[in-house]
């Protein structure tokens, strides 16, 4: 079915504009048209389906469920919950704060905070369509494991004592939550359809420009930047290329929508899979805006520990995947 987008790009680039797909402009434009139309089409379907299911999700019940579960199990549930909630790193913080105030163990809240910006329906659709199913499943697995390992680590070091005193001393919430949360799970099928339709409009309105920008950059790399330049300047699997890619990704903060097309183009140009994965994860999960907001919740020592943990985790993941790069071929 997805071949229709390739055919559409062929029609516009080759037949209408008369460009050669092997040329710089022809190749870039073909890449841009095919991937933009394919991604937007898949996003509409995926966002609708996941939002329809999420319409029954009661955040208060999730919070209470997490608070009463075994820690190891809680890390996994929190990581999965982070994966199915379509938040960027900054918009995850209010929910992180709510979990903290609700006295859910800090490790479980950290599992959510780490996973939430890394995995969402947008990332899943774009990874599967642009980078292939193997890359998508590995990325999802690393995201979930990162959250779970992070949760264990922050519980192990007793990270509660590094929260800001104002947050630590807040009383737990009383009552049953907001009317919307209380109503969750009681929607009719029609209401869930309306909710899902609204989510499609809201999320697409928020991300369509990132899709255009991300695919545009990827198209430029695909058509105009020689493979030799990418490999020569960004590393051909040298040990230092992975931590360099992780550090490079921090100031280039973007959500998954904007960075995945760039990663796809870099991968196609010969950048090793582990280096590409590490760059993408650091760009999505570590950002200066996020850390500025987290300063209201965490003390400086915990912020530095959080940043260092993610940098180390993504670097190790990149090295391991580079060593296993044969599996992706």
Protein architecture, described:
This protein is mainly α. It has one domain. The chain is built from 17 helices and no strands. Helix 1 runs antiparallel to helix 2 (about 25-55) and helix 7 (about 120-130) crosses helix 8 (about 135-155). The chain starts with a helix and ends in a 6-residue tail after the last helix.
Q: Output the structural class.
A: mainly alpha
- The ordered H/E elements are HHHHHHHHHHHHHHHHH
The average pLDDT value, as a whole number, equals 76
Quaternary state reads single chain
Number of domains as seen in the coordinates? 1
Distance between the termini: 24 Å
Largest sheet: none
Low-confidence stretches: 173-184
- Counting H and I runs of at least 4 residues, what is the number of helices? 17
Helix content: over 70%
Shape: globular
Beta-strand content estimate: under 5%
What is the radius of gyration computed over CA atoms, rounded to a whole number of angstroms? 21 Å
Q: Total strand count, please?
A: 0
